[in-house]
Each structure stands twice: as structure tokens, then as C-alpha cells.
Write a structure and sequence with these properties.
4 helices; about 35% strand; 10 strands; VC0467-like
């Protein structure tokens, strides 16, 4: 899987397209695959949609996986759980922040990732798996208010890709969402 996307604003994605947008899991979504996740949408078309979960760090680096990554310039690249689809597949991704957005390189070869490490404002991450929806499935979930669609800020990859990314991203969507993002998982235990 190799895809390059340039994102500058919600309107640049085209009417109805979510490519380049963030999907923020609704606070009421309890599916363990997507509970409190931030998904960067990389493809959204008539055949389905693909994205990668940004905030499920595995607290490991590529060098920890051994093999050729152990001694590679990529050894310090952080590894994340990218989604519930093809979780054994390792996907390398690089984001380059630009003046009015960012450029995404998804599914790049290790040599290309190494080449991007020296570029200014580039972040390289690795993901096991991705999030995928069949034709019409994501549109149905959006009609059921499973997801909140948000613009991806240009500094998205300067932020830690941890559990706080969901809370902070949802909070940027307004006071109602900020309040819901701060609710405890089990309010009855408070």
C-alpha cells in the first residue's frame, strides 16, 4: 500500500470526501478497536475508505523489532497499532509539514523513509495494520453519529500520538465536545 496525499483544508478534499480529515471516535463509541481513537483518513471513495489510527502507541521503536531495522537509521521510529485490519502488516508513513498543511506518504519503502528522515519538518512513524471500511460502511457510521469529522491541524504530528491526542482533538471541536472528552470512562465509580 503506497499513497501520497496533500492536505490543506477540509474544502480541498472535495464534497463528501474525508481524505485528509480526522475521524474522532464519538465518546459513546465502546468498540475496543476504536474507543477514543483519532483516525487519519487516507482514502475515501466509492469502493470504501482507509485510515490509520494515530493514537495507539505500542511503546516500541522499529529497532526493537530486530532484523534490518535494528541497525537502520529507522531504528528510533516509533511503532503504533494502526487499526484492526491486517495487524501483522507493517506500514511506514511519513508526514511533512508544509506552510498550509502537510503531505502524507503512506506505505513507503524503508529506503524512501530513510531518505525523508533528513528533510525539515518530517515525521516518520510505523503502524501495524490500518482501519478499513467497505463501500458505504463509513457513510452509515457517520449517519449514526459514530464519528466526529475534524480538520487535521498542520502541527498534528508535532503532538504526541498517545491517549491525550483524542481528548485534545475532540476538545478543539467546541465546548460540548470538550466537556464530553473529559468525562471519565466509568462515571458511576466516581
Amino acid at each position: 500500500m503506497r499513497e501520497d496525499h496533500k492536505r490543506t483544508s477540509a474544502s480541498s478534499a472535495g464534497v463528501g470526501s474525508l481524505t485528509g480529515s480526522l475521524l474522532l471516535a464519538h465518546p459513546a463509541l465502546h468498540d475496543p478497536n476504536f474507543r477514543r481513537t483519532v483516525v487519519l483518513m487516507t482514502t475515501d471513495g466509492t469502493d470504501g475508505a482507509i485510515g490509520v489510527v494515530l493514537n495507539r502507541p505500542l511503546n516500541r521503536c522499529l529497532g526493537d523489532l530486530g532484523g534490518t531495522f535494528a541497525l537502520s537509521p529507522l531504528s528510533g521510529v516509533p511503532v503504533f497499532q494502526g487499526g484492526p485490519v491486517e495487524t501483522e502488516q507493517l506500514i511506514l508513513a511519513a508526514w511533512q509539514r508544509q506552510k498550509h498543511g502537510f503531505q502524507l506518504h503512506l506505505g513507503i519503502e524503508p529506503a524512501a523513509a530513510i531518505g525523508l528522515l533528513d528533510h525539515k519538518n518530517v515525521h516518520v512513524r510505523a503502524y501495524f495494520g490500518y482501519a478499513g471500511w467497505s463501500a458505504g460502511q463509513l457513510k452509515d457510521e457517520l449517519r449514526q453519529n459514530t464519528w466526529i469529522v475534524a480538520n487535521a491541524p498542520t502541527d498534528l504530528f508535532d503532538r504526541p500520538g498517545d491517549a491525550m491526542l483524542w481528548r485534545n482533538s475532540l476538545g478543539r471541536e467546541g465546548a460540548k465536545w470538550r466537556l464530553m472528552a473529559d468525562e471519565p470512562d466509568q462515571p458511576d465509580l466516581n
